[in-house]
Design brief:
The protein has 14 helices and 31 strands. The strands form seven sheets. Strands 4, 5, 6, 7, 8 and 9 form a six-stranded mixed β-sheet that branches. The two termini are about 35 Å apart. It has about 575 residues and is of the alpha+beta class.
Length: about 575
């Protein structure tokens, strides 16, 4: 398995045993003979057949190359299916970046006018990066986010990668070069030096947040911090951004509202929203990929390596969505359809982040969906959706759209990539060769889960009075209450029931939107020292409980990860 950066030379072996070498020398055009040629060197292979056989090795790594996150260790998942030899001498990131700006003397030159014509499977899908021209025809059909890829078809990917900078890595740039078929005429080269820096106005964040990525910013607090307060302080609340944080001026802010069923449309201003009756709901928001790092221990996953802290609990205040929808002509009894949300955060093509929820949830007076403008009694911060964020209690965080700019009542779900081709779960046997995102419903309500936050995994702990104190949270989506949290330190032979210390008991049945904080004392025998593994599992009011292992619920996107929480500590 590949466990470090892609190295200087990679040999891709085809099924018939023939190998193709890709070296930095060949990438830069400095080599000769077979070692000086790209795998897509042949016009017949690259243009007529839409690629070459060896390109299959790199398809998963280039997944979501134009939008969303990418985890380059997916290379290993694909490589394991075909014999691959990886040599040990590493290249530098500067070297591979230079290669993309270096003309290949062994390849032809193309003008942008020629490249623009290659924006469909026939005659082929080409893109440019730096001075390189790349044929990605064979890649697109196997890419779950092909809609995103096609945004750059027949053009430059440089502006996209200026935003999605997580793709500017040694792994991705090296493998992209295997698709190279030519050089772009110098006069047509797109540079990013003169482009507006979309990250220049990012808000400041508290240093306690541990970034999973910086651009876009995604970070979570240390798990122990979550145990300090039932309401998570705004500064410590996890941040999940897909695109640059927009700058919004309240003086010009307008929310577009459209009812496709009645063909009505209007715009409402921030002050108009504040005129509606103010409603406050205490609700937990959890990222769909929370605890993904634990699932990654089973086998690699494409996605951010979240720990157990991509979750937070807050009081949200704002106008009820159903009140606003009624004024837009939606009947009280109309539950047929969906409510689509679009944010003001956009990619280089002005495509906004989007998601949707069932209209029945939006119109349910017990659903508590609000357009929030306050978080824990304070105006929303920029990272958390200023000036308006939709709060959908009990539902996966990705539907709680921030920087809300547009609402559409429709018979259809959002067509957004994040609704149709992401935030869905599949069988553990489904891989990137067999996945069909159309077959799975979009995640809405989250499953029951718990996490041990204190002590930390790997910590050395001193037993006090014969006990180890354990703290954590438990939560279940859809408004279900937590009725019990069980813990074991002997592999399930015996169980201890935790104390449910803090919960929102004021919420009625079916409206328990916030988490439960719990504590438990794990007995330790006199003189017991050494390793100890503690497990937790929660039970909700529907008597749903957590599955025992991540192996049984592993899925290729690493979402809804709710297996037993397990920490290994050392008792001294």
């Amino acid at each position: 398995m590949l466990t470090r950066q892609i190295v200087r030379t990679i040999r891709f072996h085809r099924p018939n045993g023939a190998g193709q070498v890709v070296t930095l020398a060949s990438i830069a055009g400095a080599g000769t003979g077979d070692r000086g040629r790209s795998p897509l060197d042949s016009r017949e292979r690259g243009h007529q057949s839409g690629g070459n056989e060896s390109s299959d090795n790199v398809l998963p790594t280039l997944s979501l190359i134009f939008g969303g996150s990418i985890m380059t260790y997916l290379i290993t998942e694909k490589i394991k299916k075909k014999p691959t030899k990886v040599y040990a001498k590493e290249a530098s990131l500067d070297e591979i970046r230079k290669a993309h700006d270096t003309p290949r003397k062994d390849l032809p030159e193309f003008t942008m006018d020629e490249i623009v014509k290659h924006n469909a499977p026939v005659p082929g899908i080409w893109v440019t990066y730096g001075i390189g021209v790349y044929d990605i025809t064979s890649f697109v059909p196997k890419h779950p986010g092909s809609d995103k890829v096609m945004l750059a078809a027949g053009g430059a990917i440089d502006p996209f990668w200026h935003i999605f900078q997580q793709h500017n890595t040694l792994e991705v740039l090296t493998l992209l070069e295997t698709f190279r078929i030519g050089n772009l005429r110098q006069d047509d080269v797109v540079g990013t030096a003169d482009l507006h820096d979309p990250w220049a106005a990012e808000p400041k964040r508290h240093p306690i947040l541990r970034p999973a990525t910086l651009k876009p910013f995604n970070a979570e607090p240390p798990p122990a911090v979550l145990m300090d307060s039932f309401l998570t302080p705004n500064e410590f609340f996890y941040v999940r951004n897909h695109l640059p944080v927009p700058e919004v001026d309240l003086q010009t802010y307008e929310l577009e509202l459209e009812n496709e069923k009645t063909q009505d449309g209007r715009t409402i201003r921030f002050e108009d929203i504040r005129k509606y009756p103010k409603h406050t709901v205490t609700a937990t928001i959890m990222c769909g990929g929370n605890r993904r790092s634990e699932m990654m221990e089973v086998k690699p996953i494409k996605g951010l390596s979240w720990g157990p802290s991509a979750v937070g609990n807050a009081q949200w205040s704002g106008a009820r969505l159903r009140d606003i929808l009624r004024d837009a002509g939606v009947r009280e009894d109309d539950e047929d359809g969906h409510v689509q949300f679009e944010g003001l955060d956009t990619d280089p093509t002005s495509t906004a982040y989007g998601a949707s929820i069932p209209l029945a949830k939006a119109m349910d007076p017990r659903g508590d969906v609000i357009l929030a403008y306050e978080m824990n009694g304070q105006p929303l911060t920029r990272d958390h959706g200023f000036p308006i964020r939709v709060i959908v209690p009990g539902v996966v965080g990705s539907r709680n759209v921030k920087w809300l700019g547009r609402i559409v009542v429709s018979r259809d779900e959002s067509s957004s990539h994040w609704q149709q081709n992401d935030y869905k779960s599949f069988s553990p046997s489904t891989d990137w060769d067999t996945v069909d995102f159309k077959t799975a419903p979009a995640i809405q309500n989250m499953p029951v889960t718990s996490a041990i936050c204190v002590p930390a995994n790997g910590a050395t702990v001193e037993a006090a009075d014969g006990f180890v104190m354990v703290k954590g949270y438990a939560w279940s989506g859809g408004g279900s209450a937590i009725v019990r949290v069980d813990l074991t330190a002997d592999g399930g032979k015996s169980w201890i029931v935790a104390n449910l210390d803090e919960e929102d008991k004021s919420a009625g049945p079916g409206r328990r939107w916030s988490w439960t904080l719990w504590t438990a004392k794990i007995p330790v025998s006199p003189g017991q020292k050494g390793p100890l593994e503690i497990w937790s599992k929660a039970v909700d009011s529907n008597y749903n409980t957590q599955p025992e292992t991540f192996a049984n619920i592993w899925n290729l996107r690493g979402v809804v990860g709710n297996a037993y929480s397990r920490v290994r500590i050392n008792v001294k």
